[in-house]
Design brief:
ten-stranded antiparallel barrel; globular; Lipocalin; 10 strands; 209 residues; mainly beta
Length: 209
């Protein structure tokens, strides 16, 4: 999830249903972070077949947004064109808060060209279905609702992002894959699609202090 030009956020029906006490202080904003994923349960067996004798197996980890995206976080990422050439770099400071099934994520972006942007996500945890964890989210420049599902250490998001391009607004489909690499480290790879064609991608590392 990467922020581009700031846009006025539409009335968020999800946020209207959130708990009345749920809020973050405005001055804590420190500039975005989307469908189903094949269960990651096959990973240990595959790893065991190729792991040298004596090396420990990777620990089983569960990616739960309400656990990882809680409190202060940071992210560093790159924007790549469709040929894989780096186009932009950025750093993100984040503040997240959860109450029950509701989460709020505020992001502050700084790009390598000096541009600064902010985005606020409203997150909701849904009930599991067929062993898959599920979430949905909204943000000012997301068209409709972003939805995610996954199991084990991975989670996949699908949503449409409205990108200002001069005097036009370009709608691009975002295909996000999140992988929990450790208790405080998460990797996100995003493919940006237009008319089903790959036009750009993002690689982002999220961390917790």
């Amino acid at each position: 999830m990467v922020a581009f030009a700031r846009q006025a956020a539409p009335v968020d029906t999800m946020m209207q249903r959130r708990p009345a006490s749920f809020d973050l202080q405005p001055d804590t904003v420190v500039d975005t972070l989307g469908a189903e994923v094949a269960p990651a349960s096959v990973l240990p067996q595959q790893a065991a077949a190729t792991r040298p004798a004596g090396e420990p197996a990777l620990p089983q980890r569960q990616l739960r947004l309400e656990e990882f995206f809680d409190g202060r976080l940071w992210a560093d990422g790159v924007v790549l064109d469709r040929r894989g050439k780096e186009r932009r770099r950025f750093h993100v400071d984040m503040q997240a808060l959860w109450q029950g099934d509701w989460g709020r994520l505020q992001e502050s972006y700084v790009f390598d060209d000096g541009q600064r942007q902010r985005r606020t996500w409203s997150l909701r945890r849904l009930s599991e279905r067929q062993g898959l964890r599920r979430y949905e989210a909204t943000a000012g420049d997301v068209v409709g609702t972003a939805r995610a599902s996954g199991s084990g250490h991975s989670l996949r998001w699908n949503y449409v992002l409205a990108l200002p391009m001069g005097e036009r607004v370009l709608r691009v489909r975002m295909d996000d894959h999140m992988y929990l690499l450790g208790d405080k480290l998460l990797l996100n790879h995003t493919r940006m699609l237009k008319f089903g064609l790959h036009v750009a991608s993002l690689v982002v590392t999220f961390g917790k202090p």
